[in-house]
C-alpha cells in the first residue's frame, strides 16, 4: 500500500510539474511590417526595385511610342491612298501593317518577360532582408525564452492581449535606432 501511495504521489508530482512547465511558456508578438520598414536594407531594396521597374517601364514606353508613330504613318498613308498611287502606296501600307503587328507581338513578349524579371528581381532584393529580420526575431526569442512569437501584422492573429512586444529588442539586435526611421 505504501508503495502504491508513493507511485501515486510521484505521478501527481510529475503531472503538476508538467502543468507548471506548460504554464510558464512565454508568448511574444512583433509587427513584422514595422520591423521591415525600419530596416535600412529594406529602404535600399525598395529603391533598387523601383529603379529596375522604372527601367522596364521606360523600355515598354519607348516601344509603344515607336508603334504609335507607325500607326500614325499608316493612317496618313491610308488617307493619301488613291487609284493613281495604289500600287506603290499599297505595298508601303502592307509593309507598315506587318511592322505594326510585329511590334505589337514584341511589346507583348517584352511585357511578359518584364513581369518575370520583376518577380525574380523582387525575390533577389527582398529575400535577404526578410531572412535577416526572421533570424533576428528567432535570436531574440531564444535569448528571452519565448516559446511562441506571433506576427500581429498578419491577418491570422485575430486578437492578442499580453505577451511581450519584441519589436524594440529585435531592432536593437539589428542595430536599428528609433531615430533611423
UniProtKB/TrEMBL annotation:
Residues 86-120 form a coiled coil. Keywords: Coiled coil, Signal. GO terms for molecular function: unfolded protein binding. Pfam families: OmpH. Residues 1-23 form the signal peptide. One of its GO terms (biological process) is protein stabilization. GO terms for cellular component: cytosol. Belongs to the Skp family. This is Outer membrane protein. It comes from Daejeonella lutea.
Amino acid at each position: 500500500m505504501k508503495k502504491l501511495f508513493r507511485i501515486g504521489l510521484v505521478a501527481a508530482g510529475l503531472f503538476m510539474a508538467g502543468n507548471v512547465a506548460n504554464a510558464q511558456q512565454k508568448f511574444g508578438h512583433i509587427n513584422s511590417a514595422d520591423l521591415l520598414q525600419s530596416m535600412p536594407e529594406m529602404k535600399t531594396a525598395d529603391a533598387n526595385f523601383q529603379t529596375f521597374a522604372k527601367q522596364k517601364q521606360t523600355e515598354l514606353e519607348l516601344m509603344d511610342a515607336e508603334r504609335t508613330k507607325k500607326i500614325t504613318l499608316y493612317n496618313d498613308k491610308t488617307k493619301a491612298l488613291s487609284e493613281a498611287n495604289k500600287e506603290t502606296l499599297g505595298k508601303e501600307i502592307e509593309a507598315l501593317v506587318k511592322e505594326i503587328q510585329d511590334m505589337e507581338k514584341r511589346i507583348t513578349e517584352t511585357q511578359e518577360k518584364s513581369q518575370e524579371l520583376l518577380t525574380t528581381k523582387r525575390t533577389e532584393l527582398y529575400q535577404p532582408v526578410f531572412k535577416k529580420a526572421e533570424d533576428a526575431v528567432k535570436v531574440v526569442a531564444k535569448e528571452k525564452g519565448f516559446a511562441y512569437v506571433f506576427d500581429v501584422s498578419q491577418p491570422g492573429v485575430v486578437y492578442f492581449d499580453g505577451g511581450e512586444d519584441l519589436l524594440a529588442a529585435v531592432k536593437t539586435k539589428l542595430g536599428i535606432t528609433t531615430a533611423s526611421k
